[in-house]
Amino acid sequence: MIEIINAVLRSLGSLLTFFINLLPSSPFTFLPLDNHFFRFVDYVIPFVEAVAILQSYLLVVITFYGYRIVLRWLKLASA
Q1: CA-CA distance, 29 to 6, in Å (whole number)?
Q2: 47 near 41, Cβ under 8 Å?
Q3: What angle do CA 59, 18, 77 make, to 5 degrees?
Q4: How many Å apart are CA 62 and CA 65, to the nearest integer?
Q5: Quick one: pLDDT at residue 4?
Q6: Which of 1, 2, 21, 60 has a CA 20 to 30 Å removed from the CA of 66?
Q7: Which residue would you say has higher pLDDT here, 14 or 47?
Q8: For every residue of the chain, which 3-state class applies, written as one string?
Q9: Are the C-beta atoms of residues 19 and 13 closer than 8 Å to each other?
C-alpha cells in the first residue's frame, strides 16, 4: 500500500515539475541596489523596507483574492 502511495506522489511530483517547467523564465531584471547614490536616498526614504512591506501586502491581497475565486468556483461546482 505504501509503494502505491509513493508511486502516486512521485507521479504527481513529476507532473507538477513538468507544468512548472512550461512556464517562461522571469521577464523582470533585478538591478543591484548597492551604489553610492542609493545609500543617500535610502537614508532619507527607507526604500528597501518600503518594497518589503509592499511585497508582503501584495502577497496577502493576491492570496485573499485567489482563495475567494477558488471558493466561488467550489460553490458553483457544488450547486
Answers
A1: 39
A2: yes
A3: 60
A4: 5
A5: 92
A6: 21
A7: 14
A8: CHHHHHHHHHHHHHHHHHHHHHCCCCCCCCCCCCCHHHHHHHHHCCHHHHHHHHHHHHHHHHHHHHHHHHHHHHHHHHC
A9: no
Amino acid making up residue 47: F
Cell of 54: 509592499
The three grid cell numbers given for residue 17, joined into one nine-digit string: 515539475
- Inter-axis angle of helices 47-78 and 36-44, to 10 degrees? 70
Which residue type does 26 have? Answer: S
Please state, in angstroms and rounded to a whole number, the distance separating the CA atoms of residues 37 and 67: 41
Task: Decide if 48 contacts 42 (C-beta within 8 A).
Answer: yes
Q: For residue 48, give every residue at least 6 positions away whose Cβ sits within 8 Å of its Cβ, in sequence order, or none.
A: 33, 42
Cell matching residue 48: 528597501
pLDDT tens track for 33-54: 667 777 777 788 888 788 889 9
